[in-house]
Write a structure and sequence with these properties.
Structural class: mainly alpha
Order of helices and strands: HHH
Number of helices: 3
Largest sheet: none
Radius of gyration: 12 Å
Number of domains: 1
Distance between the termini: 22 Å
Strand content: under 5%
Helix content: 55-70%
Amino acid sequence: MKSLGIADETFDVLRHAHTSWLTALGMHPKDIQERLGLRHADFSTTMML
């Protein structure tokens, strides 16, 4: 991201905003997890993040 001139913090904010938007639209958390590439062994770990 730095090569594009985008701070890591900005990317993190966009990722969280995207997650919130998908949740508000009613997307199932497991689908969001897969879409974002989160691969925790225990799904409850993802839900706590």
